[in-house]
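User: My instructor asked us to take a sequence, write out its structure as tokens, and then describe one feature of it. I'm not sure where to start. Here is the sequence I was given:
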Amino acid sequence: MIQPPAPAVILMVWLGAMGLYGCQSLHAGTPTTAEGLEPGQRPPDFLLQDLAGTSHALSQYRGQIVVLHFWATWCPYCRAEIPKLVNAHQQWGSSGVTVLAVSVDQRREQLVDFVKTAKLPYAVAADGDLAESLARRYRIGPIPTTFIIGRDGLIAAALIGSSDIHGAIEQVLAAPVAPQT
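Assistant: Let's start with the prediction itself. The structure tokens for your sequence are:
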């Protein structure tokens, strides 16, 4: 009789796959303007309000690079990404790179306290504050998940887990700027 794999084996295989998949950006061959969540596609537009009360629409950032980061305060991997996001904000903010972090925390007050204590310099929004969950629209599974959206409004990289956010941003900064459509 064949026994199913133990839960620990399944978890190890899943984590191994996430490590291989999550640390690499996904590059598409020929960019398309179809709406979607893969590199080369145009992600769904959104309108959100950050914890400071400022509104952000993805469409308002055309011509800039957007680092759209989904995370939670309770996630140790997400917390490990924070210094990368702070550095990206500080290093490239004046060069047209905007960091927008969307928290999937269930308790807003916990998020507000964390952001205040950590003194996060970039925009943070609570997914629970939105009329329609942005995490659901972007089909977020594992966190952290980060989308690097290029100046043309297309996804340049989709990163899951601990990732080379800086490398992905540098690739987009180094790419020629295509005319906007």
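For the description part of your assignment, you could build on this observation: The chain has a mean pLDDT of 85. Try explaining in your own words what that tells you about the chain.
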